[in-house]
Amino acid sequence: MLSDSASVLASLTVDSDEGAVGDASAVFADAGVIRAPSLVRSQVAEYLRKAIVDRRLRPGQLLVERELCDATTASRGSVREALRQLETEGLVTSAPGRGTSVATLTEQQARHIYEVRASLEGLAGGLFAVNATDGHLRDLEAVVDRIADLADDPTRLLAVKDEFYDVLLAGAGNPELRQLLDILHRRVTLTRSTSLGVPGRPPKSIAEMRAILEAAKDRDATETARRCVSHVLNAAEAALGPEAVKSIHVAFLMPPEAVRFKPV
Hints:
Low-confidence stretches: 12-34
CATH class of the largest domain: Mainly Alpha
Structural class: mainly alpha
Order of helices and strands: HHEHHEEHHHHHHHH
Largest sheet: 3 strands, antiparallel
Distance between the termini: 53 Å
Number of domains: 2
């Protein structure tokens, strides 16, 4: 009988640009792929990273090296190096005698991540308002319009929200900031899906993103930053509760109530 992780690994698919899917081995099926150890390690890491972010591998789920090798056709050495990379990103944890499993977040860890994420997304919003081209603004508006149709579908809403952040960070024009936020977004994936599952939260989240867009269109960096920070704090409140979010301080240690904004 397959273990839980083996079952998930056996069902993992790879999407092509045309929407076709294949089995997990398709990651390495392209004859043009150069199977240098460093490249294989990166491919395995990305393969597992996507499964974790997509919540196909669940928090706490054990990752068995042999099963990963079978699913990816990679060597045990490459799989171990990929797992070490994911451990540095906080996506998996290893314990002597217990193996490696998908990381879980305590409330305190989630609160810390939201704290950092709020400050960094505020910076991203401010930079976007200053640096974004008219094309970036049009792209952001198009994504927000798409999101507005998904209030009743939290799963798809979460996926399209990733596009919102892709455009926001592209327009911000700071690749270092993007790298940091990419890591935080991966780690907080579980709480993001939890917050959007709270009744009434999706419409509020959509309104907040619309408000960010409007401030950016006005080229108001301060207001765009404030609305980005508030968006994260509101998400944290939905995921962790109002008491937990009271201890989150952002924007030069200002208390949350100093920057919160809730669209009418």
